[in-house]
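## retry 2 of 3
previous attempt timed out at serialization; input unchanged, resubmitting
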Amino acid sequence: MNRALTVTALAGAAWLAKRAIGRRIDAGSPLWPLPALEVPVSGHSPRRWIPALIVSRTEPAHGVLSLTLESADLPDWTPGAHLDVQLPSGLVRQYSLCGDPADRGRYTIAVRLVEDGRGGSREAHAQLVEGTELPVRPPRNRFPLTPAPSYAFVAGGIGITPLLPMLREATAAGAAWTLLYGGRSRASMPFLAELARYGDRVTVVPEDEAGLPDLSALGALGQDTLVYCCGPAPLMAAVEAAAAPAGAPVHLERFAPAAGGGDAKPFTVELRRSGRVVEVAATESALTAVRRELPNTPYSCEQGFCGTCQHRVLAGDIDHRDTLLTDGEHEDSMLLCVSRAASDHLVLDL
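## retry succeeded, writing output
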């Protein structure tokens, strides 16, 4: 009997405690140790990881690694899409899909070795071999191919990767198109053999043979011709300038975040859950400043591509400098690695 009374008393106490906490939450009162806020964006993309298997590794050019991945769970994709890949170290990197969208259950990516980069490409070249399991997230497409009667494609080096599936789609649709493909040398330019089947639609310009590509033809295009360019920032700037007189629409795929509007200014960030305020200098990112107070704040690419450092913004105006988040996500969250405050102060759910 005593045990039954004890169980009943504990159950009643638990119910009363739950009810009291619920009332505090409804009233917006703080709970120890965290305030009563909605569940935060927890510092990682909500998109699920899919285990894929590397079934082929080739080298289509000097310093370029091509990987074919297989999984029964790989979603469909469209030309221009890129893939988040989790390397063995945990680093997350993004690579354009360059295979055939019709080849269900298989993805192909290519990785240029950058010796003085941040380490992702070196790790990929050293450790990604056939038989390795490679987690990936469902593709995103911020560089879609818009239907048009004609296209002018321009690629620089590894920038050919997102354009390859576009060429297939444009050809299948019966559109007129040309490709101007530049690189340091033929030996460094991947997928030349695959491009050869398109004949004189493709113009290959190795810099060591012919100098920089001649972009003057872009200035004579009609507005019904869409320009698609992927490559180094100087090439993309030159393409925009060359196409401007004709008013041809230009679509760009960047390997680095575009510069934000205006000069970077200092601002403060309140970490609401932690009860702290940090100063963000004009010369540093919000991520760097936040990690001084919260060293375990997750991050990866530091370029606004992977979404690992996405966090909810509770108050303040955001200067978004990413090309990853949707308009809806921009309304209440930011990527700490590249975006800043448009106001003097931001409040984060951290």
